[in-house]
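User: Could you go from structure to sequence for me? I need the amino acid at each position, not a summary. Structure tokens:
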């Protein structure tokens, strides 16, 4: 983590809604560039309010937010610039999609930023290709599935070429397969250099996905750290009205019976299986095949897949997926 610059910082940030409800209380955090961060906490913890402040949708009652070391300003020009750099995908995609066609929806942001028509067309094409929706340009967004709507919303942010992407409950109302696809896409975007910030109630998702967990309750940040650092504190998790991730629960039960030990709990099911594997990590558990499909034609790719036989197959990168 050393040497990484802070991309977003909050200093004594507080916010109260019009009815007097205090949503945030003197929150001071710094988020480093290129990280995957999950805001976790029960309803009313302040996660969504904090996110809405990070790109200037809400203005703090007191305190300040800095982006790349500069305090946020709230004039129209400054807000336009910060919202280009810090894109937000809302929990309910229907709140974000309003144009008659997918193309118009994705083009709205870059057009609003004043980009030339040719650049808008190019950026929209890239964004739709990236999220796997090339060919959907003329479709009405309200005719799409929940997962497709989420992809259109992400494409609309991608088309503005942000440095940071914020997603409020990115997998809410999605089936398990769509949820996995969305989180895999967020991983790819992070590997491409974007800072990713999500909020979620799903402790299992946060634990296996995020580099850093920020645990919130009643408008305060009560703990931040890696998944194991946060979720191994059973009293803290119970007090936050959450359950530990399933893999942590299993590890703790195994450890209490003397069946597992280690400096930290496993991050996922695969690590848990390795922990329980007789003989430790020296035993061969199988093979990994890696193929570069750049420039390969359909016949070559089919031949590769046939040679791999009966095993799990996946593709990394937009070109490979296509």
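Assistant: Here is the amino acid at each position, in order:
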């Amino acid at each position: 983590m050393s040497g990484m610059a802070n991309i977003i910082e909050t200093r004594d940030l507080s916010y109260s809604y019009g009815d007097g409800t205090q949503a945030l209380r003197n929150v001071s955090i710094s988020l480093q560039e290129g990280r995957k961060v999950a805001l976790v906490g029960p309803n009313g913890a302040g996660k969504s309010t904090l996110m809405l402040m990070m790109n200037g949708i809400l203005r703090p009652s007191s305190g300040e937010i800095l982006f790349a070391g500069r305090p946020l300003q709230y004039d129209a020009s400054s807000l336009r610039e910060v919202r280009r750099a810090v894109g937000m995908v809302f929990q309910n995609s229907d709140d974000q999609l309003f144009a008659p066609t997918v193309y118009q929806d994705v083009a709205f942001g870059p057009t609003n930023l004043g980009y030339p028509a040719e650049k808008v067309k190019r950026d929209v094409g890239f964004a739709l290709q990236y999220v796997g929706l090339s060919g959907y340009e003329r479709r009405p967004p309200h005719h799409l599935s929940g997962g497709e709507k989420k992809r259109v919303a992400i494409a609309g942010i991608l088309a503005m070429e942000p440095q940071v992407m914020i997603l409020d409950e990115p997998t809410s109302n999605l089936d398990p397969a769509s949820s996995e696809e969305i989180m895999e896409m967020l991983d790819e975007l992070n590997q491409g250099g974007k800072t990713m910030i999500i909020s979620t109630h799903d402790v299992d998702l946060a634990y296996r996905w995020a580099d850093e967990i920020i645990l919130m309750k009643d408008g305060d940040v009560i703990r931040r750290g890696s998944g194991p650092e946060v979720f191994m504190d059973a009293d803290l998790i119970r007090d936050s009205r959450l359950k530990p991730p399933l893999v942590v629960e299993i590890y703790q039960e195994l450890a209490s019976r003397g069946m597992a030990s280690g400096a930290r709990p496993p991050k996922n099911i695969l690590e848990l299986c390795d922990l329980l594997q007789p003989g430790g990590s020296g035993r061969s558990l199988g093979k990994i095949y890696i193929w570069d499909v750049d420039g390969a034609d359909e016949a070559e790719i089919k031949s590769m897949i046939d040679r791999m036989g009966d095993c799990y197959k996946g593709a990394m990168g937009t070109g490979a997926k296509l």
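One structural detail worth keeping in mind: The CA atoms of residues 228 and 265 lie 6 Å apart.
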